[in-house]
């Protein structure tokens, strides 16, 4: 979980204001753009290790946006990176 995701989650829980699924999708897409931009900057500097890390983060944010849109709430699915067969079924990626 990125620092941005953690802060958003804590604020949402503390203020007892759940994020709308559409807001979650938008949030993850904005993080994806941020990480892609950072990745491009790092590539230009020749820092390939950090660039690939940011690209990976961007890919995870896209996956989370798709999951949020399909399922409605990532909280109900647990940690997306856990490779849950049930999650893959819910996303239509596995039977």
**Uncertain spans:** none
Query: Overall pLDDT, averaged?
Result: 79
Shape: globular
Radius of gyration: 15 Å
Helix and strand run = HHHH
Number of strands: 0
**Range of strand content:** under 5%
Structural class computed from helices and strand pairing:
mainly alpha
Helix content: over 70%
Oligomerization state? single chain
Largest sheet data = none
Distance between the termini: 27 Å
Task: Quickly count the helices.
Answer: 4
Outline the structure in words.
There is one protein chain. This protein has 95 residues and is mostly helical. The protein has a domain at 20-74. Helix content is 71%, strand content 0%. The protein has four helices and no strands. It has helices at residues 3-14, 21-45, 48-71, 85-90. Helix 2 (21-45) runs antiparallel to helix 3 (48-71). The protein is globular. The two termini are 27 Å apart.
């Amino acid at each position: 979980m990125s620092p941005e995701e953690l802060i958003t989650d804590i604020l949402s829980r503390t203020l007892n204001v759940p994020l709308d699924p559409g807001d979650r999708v938008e949030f993850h897409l904005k993080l994806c753009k941020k990480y892609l931009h950072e990745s491009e900057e790092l590539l230009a500097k020749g820092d390939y290790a950090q660039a690939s890390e940011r690209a990976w983060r961007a890919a995870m944010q896209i996956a989370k946006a798709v999951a949020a849109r399909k399922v409605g709430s990532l909280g109900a699915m647990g940690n997306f990176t856990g490779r849950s067969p049930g999650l893959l079924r819910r996303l239509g990626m596995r039977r």
